[in-house]
């Protein structure tokens, strides 16, 4: 009897609690849990943009490093140019030259044209300055040019030899980044002249030395013959003038040789 009363009381309490409790509905934020492997990754466009931004940042950092290095003072207080450290060339060349030597005629003619021969040594002394505008553009020649003329009869005959010894610096205007260019040259030296006059079997010699001014223009080329060597072919086409005293001689010709 007592047990039945307790069961009835528990049953009434459960029914009453269910009637009083508010209904539970699903909320909007009760979405399924998203696992990390289910989340969408960055697109290819986003990856490329991030890589481009990273490259720009590295370039800026590298430029800052170079700028800081250039602004730092060297051991002696000044920034030292390093243009010559990676230059494998000595800048020394030798060439043989030949052409027409136009000697001013003492007889009022336009010129006495003879064969002009010679040799020259070239030194690209602009490399010693460690400045890019001068490295291959500024050079100088040590030059010897020779010509001989003769005229007369079997009884009286005259022969004259001209020797021009000059040192002449030049500046070359390159054709872009090529090994070719146009140059202008001015220098000085001495002209040594030997004259012999033969009358019958008697010969009289007269020698003379005069100061000399050399000037002219030309085209110069120095193409590399091998990518693994410093050896270069060098050649020129030129028009040079020699002013000796009151007389003007001209050389029209070219040269070919090698540069190291």
TrEMBL record:
Keywords carried by this UniProt record: Signal
InterPro entries (UniProt xref): OMP/PagP_B-barrel (IPR011250)
Skewed-composition ranges (Acidic residues): 27-52
Region ranges (Disordered): 25-83
Biased composition (Basic and acidic residues): 59-70
Signal peptide region: 1-26
Listed SUPFAM superfamilies: OMPA-like
Official protein name in the record: Outer membrane protein beta-barrel domain-containing protein
Species: Myxococcus llanfairpwllgwyngyllgogerychwyrndrobwllllantysiliogogogochensis
